[in-house]
Amino acid sequence: MSALLFEGADWSFETIQRIHDRVEEIALGEMKLDVYPNQIEVITSEQLLDAYAGSGMPIYYGHWSFGKRFVQHEGHYRKGYTDLAYELVINSSPCISYVMEGNSALMQTLVIAHAAFGHNHFFKNNQLFRDWTDAPGILDYLQFARTYIAQCEETYGERNVERLIDAAHALMSHGVHRSPRRRKTDFKTEQARAKERREHDEKIYNELWETLPGGAPKTPQTSPEAHLANLLELPQENILYFLEKTAPRLAPWQREIIRIVRLLAQYFHPQRQTKVMNEGVATYVHYKIMNRLHESGNITDGAFLEFLTSHTNVVFQPQFDDRRFSSINPYALGFAMMTDLERICVKPTDEDRDWFPELAGCNDPTNALKDIWAHYRDESFISQYLSPRVMRDWRMFNLVDDPAEPTLKVEAIHDERGYRRIRRAFAREYDVGHVDPQIEVVAVDLQGDRRLIVQHSVRGGRLLASREASEVLGYLADLWGYPVLLREVDEHGNGLREHTAEPRGREAFQSGKP
Amino acid sequence: MYVIDRRLNPSGKSLPNRQRFLRRAGKVLREAVRNVSASRPIREVGEGGVVIIPARGIDEPSFHTGSDGQHGRVLPGNKEFLEGDRIARPQGSGGGKGKGSGNGAGNGGGGEDEFKVALSAEEFLTLFLEDLELPDLERRKLSLTDSTGMRRAGYTKSGSPANLAVSRTMRNALSRRMALKRPKPEDLAALEEALRYAEEVKDEMQAARLRELIDTHGVRTRAIPYIDPIDIRYRRFEPSPRPIAQAVMFCIMDVSGSMTEHMKDMAKRFFMLLYVFLQKRYKQVEVVFIRHTDEAKEVDEKTFFESRETGGTRVSSALIEAQKILEERYPVADWNIYIAQASDGDNESGDNDRATALMRDGLLPLCQYFAYLEVDEPHSDTPTSSLWKTYDKLDPGPAMRRVTTRQEIYPVFRELFRRRNEALETT
């Protein structure tokens, strides 16, 4: 196979088919990747802007915040501040990759290698995605969500639905289960169950039951508080889940919408935890494939140079004192780590043998990497596999800002004493559980005024941003229907600060009668 | 693998959400639009463009940590630091904090303090003119219904072939065929199949029975047509009255020597607003410019605003001119008439009685709305002018306001044209 796939920048649908087939040969035949069936969609830049606004998904429910995002992206794009991404890929089965019509043939090749094989392999094989997302069902579920929410808007009024979604979105970052539970979400049965639940509720509802005198109260085995906590599954870190199941004043449709927001938050949660790995895998895969295409004479030298320029831009990491620096570029870090792991497998140094005895010199980088891709997320990946070599190449150092001190302190640099400490600190930056404040529902005062008590476990004195916290708390109170208390408590159990909120505008969240 | 061309799918999927966003940002957006329009040159008042709104009004809050407490960060590109080095805290940011925690889901606004929105001319105007209403629109609408248009109104049994309602006709045909049990082609085919089989196995009796059945089927099929003339329906249209949607606006301006450039500028702005406003409400708006000193003349827009003239002031001359043009070209039955007059009010003393008579008996009963704008130098405390006093005595009189600075124009305009019920609440 040494025929050129294309010449010049122009492409046609046959070209794309030809490119895909050849890339597939390399990806599946030589690299032994394992992917969902591919679906490549050619779109215009305007359609890509639309897709951006809806979290990258082709369908999404309507809400003003997506319009805001659209205005933002559109403004930046028209002003020329940002380029559009060349591609967008959706974790679904079939795996949908968008390619822009304005791309050159070489860029389409790159996008297909990067998205349709790199990301696609990661989506299908990484444990987090396997546990938490249901790729074949997501598009149907989004369709269901959109129809359901549109129906609610018609029945209960657009404003009421909007306020509910505002509230749910504010709590979205605390609407995920962080540790695996019994069962992964299956979006197909989810839709059926949603319907069943509603029907069941309607069927068994009978006003007469409300008037029956209760039987003799059962004596609880444990203390009433513990019994209650057990009943309500407290403490509960998934606030949206807690509200959906227990908030006393919500109507069934309101619970369903909260559930939709929560399940979608959960669907996107793995992506937040695997930015470096996801992009690292895709970049590593496209780099391999493009080189292979060049070696076997499928693309011209000119096209290969175009690829190298683009690739270099993608994996560019400005240094901390550069004006362009804002944060670590996940493409750059991921790619650097993947290529370094490959080097360790093939050409290890003594240092590598020390640090990675199980990898060094195993001479099977393909399988070693695929195993890592399947079982790690950013935090664990960095804490296990960031090598001293990469730390040296990047000249990493750990800077600590303690408000008690007048100056910043360089805690560790890339030397023998510092490697492990840098690696530990660095990995923690990618630990979503560490970056997001840890907030849990801890108690409900059912004897008194039904106040909901929420606790923020403060680490390192990092209190919540106060103004926003009270706004979110207001939303939480609206959903709960009664007052809410947020306590910020440090590692030793000392209360540092308290916020309270009363439900506003009860009528909107109350019965939800049309 | 499939390649799908989505380019022909409709774009603009985000537009409904964009509309929702604009509605949500309504209050801040309206303010921004007004601020922008105040600083624009006259001719661009009605154009769209970028407005800047504070992000505060449209943020999406989430729980995240603030700048308090300890923060650590691993950075690339160390050049000279050794472990334990101390570095001065950079100004203006929370140390090594950066964007670390701000990227929670749904936290789109980030740290930006302001937000740019590009509005189309249409959106800009809608926001600009929101909650303004034309006075006395109802009255004229009711009385002016002589123009008519056609409107869909159900179906009819007779009509021109161009109006044939195909789906309705086919529906009628189908129900008739079902009611009369017209044999279906499939049934016939099945019978023929059975007949062939019967002939094959030489079951003569069965074959004869089938042949007879097929015959009767054929007869029924021919007797009951697929489409019968009684099935046919046509779309029916009926004439319906339409309110007149055209307006004429008279701009009357005093250009005598006592009117300074500043005063004329204010008058211009007022006319501009009125024009934009009427244009938004009516399909067709005509503008008549009348300028006057001691005699009045109809002129084109450029002359009206730009050329200079000197002389005394006789308001009645302009009123007569307006009345003349009205009678000649704009019959009351066909036009909604708006008159806006700007002057410093410094009328010749002998002219006021004539003006009163012209207004009371001639113009006021004819027009929808008469607005009188008295312009003056900033900070001047001239007592009310003679023209003001004259107009003030009329009952019903014109709507009158007095402005001295450019910033007042918009509020005054709003006051003159605000919605009825709102006006009642505030006064």
Question: What keyword list fits this structure?
Answer:
heterodimer, A: 514 residues, alpha/beta, four-stranded mixed β-sheet, 23 helices, B: alpha/beta, 3 domains, six-stranded mixed β-sheet, 13 strands, flat, disordered C terminus
Short description:
The complex is a heterodimer of chains A (514) and B (427). With 514 residues, chain A is of the alpha/beta class. Chain A is built from 23 helices and nine strands.
Question: Which residue ranges of chain B are poorly predicted, with pLDDT under 50 across at least 5 consecutive positions?
Answer: 93-111, 136-145, 421-427
> How many individual helices of chain A?
23
Radius of gyration of chain B: 38 Å
Could you give the order of the helices and strands of chain B? EHHEEEEHHEHHHEEHEEHHEHEHEHH
> Main sheet of chain A?
4 strands, mixed
Question: How much helicity do the residues of chain A have?
Answer: 40-55%
Going by CATH, the architecture of the largest domain in chain B would be 3-Layer(aba) Sandwich
| Strand arrangement across the biggest beta sheet of chain B | 10-9-8-11-12-13
Low-confidence stretches of chain A: 510-514
The radius of gyration computed from the alpha-carbon positions of chain A, rounded to a whole number of angstroms, is: 26 Å
**Strand ordering within the main sheet of chain A:** 6-7-8-9
What coarse outline of chain A follows from CA principal-axis ratios? globular
Q: How many separate domains of chain B?
A: 3
CATH superfamily of the largest domain in chain B: von Willebrand factor, type A domain
> What is the helical fraction of chain B, as a range of percent?
40-55%
Q: Beta-strand level of the residues of chain B, as a percent range?
A: 15-25%
* DSSP strand count of chain B: 13
Write up what this structure looks like.
The complex is a heterodimer of chains A (514) and B (427). Chain A is of the alpha/beta class and 514 residues long. Helices cover 55% and strands 11% of the residues of chain A. Chain A has 23 helices and nine strands. Chain B has 427 residues and is an alpha/beta fold. Chain B folds into three domains: 14-59 and 112-130, no CATH class; 161-236, no CATH class; 246-426, von Willebrand factor, type A domain (Rossmann fold, 3-Layer(aba) Sandwich), CATH 3.40.50. Chain B has helices at residues 15-24, 26-38, 121-128, 137-143, 166-179, 185-200, 204-223, 261-281, 301-306, 315-329, 352-366, 386-393, 406-417, 420-426, and strands spanning 2-5, 49-54, 71-75, 86-88, 114-119, 147-156, 234-242, 246-254, 284-292, 296-299, 336-343, 369-375, 399-403. A six-stranded mixed sheet of chain B has the order 10-9-8-11-12-13, with helices on both faces. In chain B, strands 2-5 form a two-stranded antiparallel sheet. In chain B, strands 6-7 form a two-stranded antiparallel sheet. Chain B is flat, with a radius of gyration of 38 Å. The relative contact order of chain B is 0.10. The model of chain B is unreliable at 93-111, 136-145 and 421-427 (pLDDT under 50). At the A-B interface, helix 1, strand 1, helix 2, helix 3 and helix 7 of A face strand 1, helix 1, strand 3, strand 4 and strand 5 of B.
